[in-house]
Automatic annotation (TrEMBL), chain A:
Membrane-spanning parts: 12-29, 41-68, 88-109, 114-134, 169-187, 208-234, 254-278, 290-313
Record's GO cellular component terms: plasma membrane
Subcellular locations according to the entry: Cell membrane
Entry protein name: Branched-chain amino acid transport system permease protein
Lineage, uppermost ranks: Bacteria, Pseudomonadati, Pseudomonadota, Alphaproteobacteria, Hyphomicrobiales
Annotated PANTHER family: ABC TRANSPORTER ATP-BINDING PROTEIN, HIGH-AFFINITY BRANCHED-CHAIN AMINO ACID TRANSPORT SYSTEM PERMEASE
Membrane topology: Multi-pass membrane protein
GO MF annotations in UniProt: branched-chain amino acid transmembrane transporter activity
Keywords for this protein: Cell membrane, Membrane, Transmembrane, Transmembrane helix
Keyword Repeat part of the UniProt annotation: no
Keyword Repeat: no
Main location: membrane
InterPro entries in alphabetical order: ABC_transp_permease (IPR001851), LivM-like (IPR043428)
TrEMBL record, chain B:
Transmembrane segments: 6-33, 45-62, 68-90, 102-122, 142-164, 193-215, 227-254, 261-282
Membrane topology: Multi-pass membrane protein
Family statement: Belongs to the binding-protein-dependent transport system permease family. LivHM subfamily.
GO BP of this protein: amino acid transport
Phylogenetic classification of the source organism: Bacteria, Pseudomonadati, Pseudomonadota, Alphaproteobacteria, Hyphomicrobiales
Protein name: Branched-chain amino acid transport system permease protein
Amino acid sequence: MTEVRSNATRIWLLHAAVIVLLLAGNFLLPEYHRGMFSRALVLATYAMGYNLLFGYTGLLSLGHAMFFAAGMYGAGLPVYHLGWDVPLVFATGIAAAGLLSLAVGVLALRTTGVAFMIVTMMFAQIFFLATLYFTTWTRGEEGLVLQPTTRAIEFAGNTISLSDPSTRYLVALTLFAIVLLVSLRLVKSSFGRTLVAIRENEERVRMLGYNVFATKLLAVVFSGLVCGAAGAAYGLLFGYVGSGFASSQYSILALLYVLLGGAATTLGPLVGTLFMFYVIDYTSGLTSAYLLLVGVVLIILILFFPKGLLGTIREKWLPWLP
Amino acid sequence: MAFGPYFLLATLEGLVTASILALTALGLSLVFGVMRVVNVAHGEFFMLGAVLAWAVSTAFAGHPAIGFSAALLVAPLVVGGAAFLSERLVLRRLDYNPEATIVATIGMLYIIQQLALTFYGADARPVQAPFNVRIQLPWFGYSGYKLFVIAAAIIVMLGTWLLLTRTKIGLIMRATQYDRETAQAFGIPVDRVYGGVFALGAMLAAVAAVLVVPTQQAHYLMGRDPLLLSFIVVIIGGLGSLRGTLVAALIVGLSDGIISVFFSPTLAKMLATALVALVLVFRPQGLFGVRTR
């Protein structure tokens, strides 16, 4: 019992320490790296949403860019065309992603395995093509630039501008921290354990009387909501909404970050995202072909480290890592 | 223009699209059927074939037919070799786990695409057709080369069909497809069969690309549409069913021209993708397939 309790303490301490370290980063990091970290934190949030489905539930989706982009367009279009307030469009972004993930989940969950991967990829492709087709509103690949004046929150008489680097970092960190703690809570809950059980043996879970379809659907929607929140935040913080974010490449990036950091680890997405950000940053001096690097890393990971960085650490040294 | 000539033209163009598509999709279908591997890099093998066709044909001076024939020989061999290597080095080590192989072939996709961009460049480059004959039809003259493409595709497909149904290699491949473990127990080197099938699949895509490249230019992103269309064909035709693949390629190829007359290409692609995704959701055995084991 004490073992269990000390593990729980350790886990909370570890996560709190990560958040505090990241908070300190706002004051200690040089400007360039603070910018990198802001982006990485939002994309790590996206990867955490992906991890819920891929890592914990064992459903490999190749179309999560559509949820990210749904959040982004759900927030970006009302700001750009209707001039709605930031908190309101953040909510519409999340709602858009939630509705999309519900619809996609109901259809795609009728399939399993390889068919699930292809179907999600195809739905994402349709979403991507839609962002190109409705070019009157989305301006397609060129995208929409959200002016800094539209990205400000009026709060108690003050104007908080999301284009300020420090605010941007803190907002990104807040979103990241909330999602991190919620997902930690989630994977430790009975719902989270059901997800892992489905990943390990779906038939047995069904036999035990669980409604597997409903549980998986809930996981898809939850994952979609998190990815949508990340997408909405990305659009609002960095002021750009473009169809590139809906392309298949962004679906693959989420998979890459999670695989690299370690699937089914709460901190893996952050580790994977930061690692990949800096690998690309360092090699960008040598080659502009960063997709080549993405390809090579993907193959090396799947061949030699299918458990990722934190997954391997958990297996070898720290079995209590959530 | 009256309906008659227009219809004939659309049908001919559709047949050209369909024959190229059938060859490409046949490769994808073969790899999926025998190995149960979804090769996401299939479109890049197609692109590689086209790019190599450009490289080989420009290396030969003189009559374009010489360069083209050389390309038709060299490009599929090189692509097949590359596919064989990647199968040996990557897919085999993954023990053909369906999900891991998809991730690995996505990696290959990026690698091949970026290498093509680095060494070939972002330009679209033409390849000269081996001959330039116009065949006079009732209403208009039509490129003799395009008719040759249709004929060549039919010959290659017949060849593949004969290989599968009339030879020992084909028998071994079908046995592996039907039951991998029993085949292994009967002394079939399943492992080597997989390497050969993966190479053969890529070679079919490369042949299709060499055939198509005189009618459209070689470009490093040209693998995207063939990949999507091949997926559509293979899924509609039923995963792993060769006859279904052929029928579906004809339907998709012929309707492609007609649909794009009425809708914008983007909308046509959206509708086609949605339709196919729904087929996969509600009728996973394909429109013509039979539910298997």
